Amino acid sequence: MSRLLILLACLAAPAARAQLPPPPVSAAAWLVFDRGAEAVLASSNAELRREPASLTKMMTAYLVFEAVRDGRLGWQQMVAAPEAVRMVGNEESRMYLRPGDRTPVRVLVEALLIVSANDAAVTLASAVDGDEAAFVARMNAAAARLGMAGTHFNNPSGIPGPTHYTTVGDLLRLTLAFDRDFPQVFDITRAPAFSFRRFQRDATNPLLTRDAAVDGLKTGHTEAAGYNIVISARHRRQGSAGQPRDLIAIVLGAPSKAARSRGVEALLDHAGSAFHLSEVLTAGQPLQRLRVHGSNEGEVALGAERTQRLALPRGTEAELRVTLDEPAPFAPLARGTVLGQIEAVQAGQVLARVPLIALQDASPAAWPLRVFDWLALHVGNLLGRLFHGTAQA
């Protein structure tokens, strides 16, 4: 299981470490995630199934990015709006495409994500797979592939239905998939407005003009779903002297636009005020030294295989606990050899565990020293076992 899936398997666990309780959020489900620590800082009903409304379009966009990456579509490729755009109602968000209108893929994705155009969603689904049914099957296959076990789609736009649902945990998984696979999506979702020919409209995301750190990602609303939002905020500071943080906040089922905005802003503020980001381990930084018997070097430095950052309750730090699985290695010893583990511990709770590795090679010494070290090591082990056995008797 990947590090990301392990962290997401315990969505609510880190909240117990917070000194400050999470803020009251008027919504059915919500969470806030710290990218630097790869951890959910606080959540409520993270796996509760809810109608996503236009947050559905995040998956539609993800599949278009995949199609462009794989060469099945091009950003400047002109695609024709299908007959199905006639079915987009006047009450739905749209860019007023008519059947046969030819529009670049890039423009359609901008309309999809910035102003939530349903006719853009229908047109993109047709461009990727020829018809909506095949595209919806692709959506559900992608959801399964990304580990979105609580998600099922019926359409590419977000039209409500009893089997059209997702969770805040799954939306986090999808957002992190954009981070990993298609970070260029944020070049689109940070735009404050969309215009194409005579059509102009401000972005549906209200935080873009209120918080300079916000670079997306998507809003959604239907009467059945309530007011939904996924927010990405890069290098956000809590106050002028605050630590810059890369955050994701998700709210599903807020009762109003205002409550949605208040809720997501409160979650971002909570992440900045209640937690600080601490680099508890730095890859390649020596933590201690270990004798390597029969080596020219005599001893090698040990350290972390990878850098580990944690979001800790403000005013606290973690302690490191090192465990050696092989306390008396014999040369040769290759750099990167796992010799134990390092744990970051706070109040008796293990917050992170990473391999302890040799940070350098240990080359074999000349044979007289190797023989001497081998004999000393084995005689020492024998005497230790005899002494231990006598002590037990």
Instruction: Please mark out the parts with pLDDT under 50 across 5 or more consecutive residues, or reply none.
Output: 1-18
- Overall average pLDDT: 91
Helix content estimate: 25-40%
Q: Specify the CATH homologous superfamily of the largest domain.
A: DD-peptidase/beta-lactamase superfamily
Domain module count: 2
Strand order of the largest sheet: 2-1-9-8-7
Distance from first to last alpha carbon: 45 Å
| Coarse morphology | elongated
Describe the structure.
The longest helix is centred in the last third of the chain and has 26 residues, at 367-392. The protein has 393 residues and is an alpha+beta fold. It has two domains: 3-276, Beta-lactamase (3-Layer(aba) Sandwich), CATH 3.40.710; 282-392, D-Ala-D-Ala carboxypeptidase, C-terminal domain (Peptidoglycan synthesis regulatory factor (PBP3), Domain 2, Sandwich), CATH 2.60.410.10. The protein is built from nine helices and 16 strands. The chain has helices at 3-8, 56-69, 105-114, 118-129, 132-145, 168-181, 185-189, 257-274, 367-392; strands at 29-34, 39-44, 78-80, 102-104, 193-196, 199-202, 214-222, 226-236, 245-254, 275-281, 286-291, 299-304, 308-313, 319-324, 338-346, 349-358. Mean pLDDT is 91; it is low at 1-18. Helix 2 packs parallel to helix 4, helix 3 crosses helix 4 (118-129) and helix 4 (118-129) crosses helix 5. The radius of gyration is 27 Å and the shape is elongated. The relative contact order is 0.13. The chain starts with a helix and ends with a helix.
